[in-house]
Amino acid sequence: MEFLNLHDAVARHVKDGDQVALEGFTHLIPFAAGHEIIRQGRRNLTLIRMTPDLIYDQMIGMGTARKLMFSWGGNPGVGSLHRLRDAVERGWPGPLEIVEHSHAAMAHAYEAGAAGMPCAFFRGYRGSDLPRVNGDIRFVACPFTGESLACVPAFRPDVAIVHAQKADREGNVLIEGIVGVQKEAALAARRAVVTVEEVVDGFGPRSSNAVILPAWALSAVVVAPHGARPSYAHGYYARDNAFYIAWDEIARERQTFLAWMRDHVLR
Amino acid sequence: MEFLNLHDAVARHVKDGDQVALEGFTHLIPFAAGHEIIRQGRRNLTLIRMTPDLIYDQMIGMGTARKLMFSWGGNPGVGSLHRLRDAVERGWPGPLEIVEHSHAAMAHAYEAGAAGMPCAFFRGYRGSDLPRVNGDIRFVACPFTGESLACVPAFRPDVAIVHAQKADREGNVLIEGIVGVQKEAALAARRAVVTVEEVVDGFGPRSSNAVILPAWALSAVVVAPHGARPSYAHGYYARDNAFYIAWDEIARERQTFLAWMRDHVLR
Amino acid sequence: MTYTAAEMMTVAAARALRDGDICFVGIGLPSAACNLARLTHAPRIHLIYESGTLGTRPDVLPLSIGDGELCETALTTVAVPEVFRYWLQGGRITVGFLGGAQVDRFGNLNSTVIGDYTKPKVRLPGSGGATEIATGCGEIFIVMRHGARSFVKQLDFLTTLGHGRTGRERRELGIRTKGPVLLVSDLCIMRPDPETSEMVVTSLHPGITCRRVCENTGWDARFAQTVAETEPPAAAELEVLRDLHARTARAHGTAVASE
Amino acid sequence: MTYTAAEMMTVAAARALRDGDICFVGIGLPSAACNLARLTHAPRIHLIYESGTLGTRPDVLPLSIGDGELCETALTTVAVPEVFRYWLQGGRITVGFLGGAQVDRFGNLNSTVIGDYTKPKVRLPGSGGATEIATGCGEIFIVMRHGARSFVKQLDFLTTLGHGRTGRERRELGIRTKGPVLLVSDLCIMRPDPETSEMVVTSLHPGITCRRVCENTGWDARFAQTVAETEPPAAAELEVLRDLHARTARAHGTAVASE
Fold first, then answer.
1. What residue numbers bound the domain in which C184 lies?
2. D contact set with A (CB within 8 A)
3. Which position among A98, C36, D149, D151 has the lowest Cβ density within 10 Å, counted as fewest Cβ atoms?
4. pLDDT in tens, B111-139
5. H or E stretch including D5?
6. Mapping DSSP to helix (H, G, I), strand (E, B) and coil, where does residue D102 land?
7. Does residue C258 lie in a domain region?
8. Into how many domains does chain C fold?
9. C257 within domain boundaries
10. Contact between chains at B211 and C76 (C-beta distance less than 8 A)
């Protein structure tokens, strides 16, 4: 683990063509890191994320991705992700290959990756058409009961980026609140980068079972205050719900989208 | 969930011939419940536990069990479990069938039970003789890589009993410290009984991610202060290491063992 | 007392929940229905959101499935893999809410695409948790607005299993959960026929005719032998629901979350 | 400065640990060796006990794998299934310590039974974590007292894979971890032959002869071309180790935990 600034962390750990997972389940979505990836002009990324959310809508709209692995691609409580739809429906700004799963499958694939397994087994996809359009979904018989179980490949992204509340001086990272699949994504990845709100001398009194990622399991820790905005950081700032609603208008048209990105991300 | 006293909880939820898991990984071992099972004279139990420890040494020596599923049967830091050895080596007080696993397999079998799976898959048992003596160990090929993965049946005990620090008035249970496989054992079981040090009005300020078992996932909660002794309860009392050492002498001979049980458990 | 179609739907769905139910809650109307039930006849209902919040008691409705409010008012919050493994797949959830862009006569749902999967006319959000919620929960409540384009003869894509394309798939696949036992729309309530598992109209909302339902259903809608009239929302129910929405609007600076 | 055989073993094992190693620690001598290393040349060593304590820094040695001291001084404590899945099977551990009642020339271990499995002469504790520690950790250090009954030609039961019955099994099974790279006994240090993977004597402890090793080894012990003499414990090492044991004895009211 080394402490890096955001520019250097992305420059060193995110390469063109990489399989990249930026996780954060509504909470702690690493927007600052996603914006830095856009600014550095990465291309041909395979983006993995359960809920692409606004951050992948922005990355897809700016042409960083050639492939998306996901399970729910909407703007929560608002509607569509227009940039994602434009890429899938009309190939703008370029064609986007999609590998589509259910939430349960994605969660299991991350968990299996963290556990060093080649694949994940679960009771899933029964009666759904999804296995017909996703070749990564297979079925295996339980050797004891004969029950047919779903099996998907483990996720082993080249790099995972997650956002957390705090790191201590050694680079250990504490995550609190809705922890989503961040721990699994970080442990499943070959390189794990964590952006944090702040670095503290020590975590102080805490639950013996606090969710902590040891420094030695990480590649880089980056101090990025408000690095999850417009998502939120439990204990630091609230979700900017108004922006999620406003995004519907901003992203609906290519030009308004590009203008907003130019003014707010690229500048 | 209902609040019961220890006698009624065992009378109602532990039947002759049941598959029973009393878990607690060194910490929070439910001794009081195990002693009550002995006092009520249960027979032909299948006992499941990663580390049988003194509690199963006592239950086996008193003839409650016909079968043991375990992964490490010693007195931690001290030596043998003499009653377990006497049962396996000389069939006293009766024959004891054993189903032997590794820790990883047991942990996975509980996890799979909690997850409603028929079996657990992991990378295990490679090169070991254990699969030759345990028919519950199979191997399945990963459909993507062809790697041979170990597979064991999920544990679905009739009843699991674990000990925890506290319950609130609704019967929700908080576990802190070394949590072992208690949560998995409780969720894997058809009936889950939890003994606690105390009942509190509320858990108060705590980590958002505290280890809590909801009342609705449990069958019974029992107030049993010091219910883990001579094991320990983090935040309440320390492990009685001297007793673990003394047990080596007490349990070495059948007569001294029976005398101790008569004086300390049956009376 | 006047009320909107959304209010009728929310109230009808809320009434179907039993005290003590363990609900897997989605955002939007299901969230409103579950919390309405919790604040009225089902105080001991337990709400689980797929973001990992167990036993949450939000004071305002979440705009997203992972709002801080859900975590702050929860008994505890677990990781997402655990929600799907120990709580959903573990068989602990009694009721799950689902909806979609299309539903067919057997309660199968499409939330993936309109048109061909490889060249979609409309790319929808996708499964999210639905595919496993449909088979993991004891029962499924479907909440959707009626319309000939959403209540269709033939789904463009079967994202989420209801009773299957023949009504018999659940049994054939060895699935022991019940699947869709209730469908609440803005026009009526439908429940599965005990024989065929086809969703049939069992109750019409006040002022709604059979004809109106038929015109807005893409298949030949069937009706139970005795079709009841849905009890309109009571003043008490509307008061609690509107307070909830008002609090929510103040908190989010919008009413979007309310549906 | 005089020292015991146990002290020589502990110091030799501790020296083999590198600063920054991630160690999967068992109780007894391995625990003493890891903490000695942490308190001397390897302050940034990370200790994981299978009870789930990550990055623990005990002030006294644990009597059991789950002592409260381990949890109280840990970075955090995770559930046991997670230890075996994310941390061990996940391939994050660099060094694991193992021992047993019997070891053979290829570092395979028996901790299950002496005699026939179905009618054991001695029923031993069993695998515990060993079976997967042996294949999941980057390297394995074996620590055992020498003796013709424990260093045997033929194991009664192969609980835990070393280099296999032929020395080639790891490759044949596609296992990429190294297995036993070090065996420390009270007489000598053994390391695997690069060709055959047989454990050969590379260093004799002070005052120990080849003959003594051969008499206490059940197979024809082999020696490296150049056999070194093990550096005796330094005064500083002994001081730290004895303080650790003294603190431990005071805490547990016994010295049992020290070996």
1. 5-252
2. 20, 22, 46, 54-55, 71-72, 74-78, 85-86, 89-92
3. D149
4. 999 999 999 999 999 999 999 999 999 99
5. helix D5-15
6. strand
7. no
8. 1
9. no
10. yes
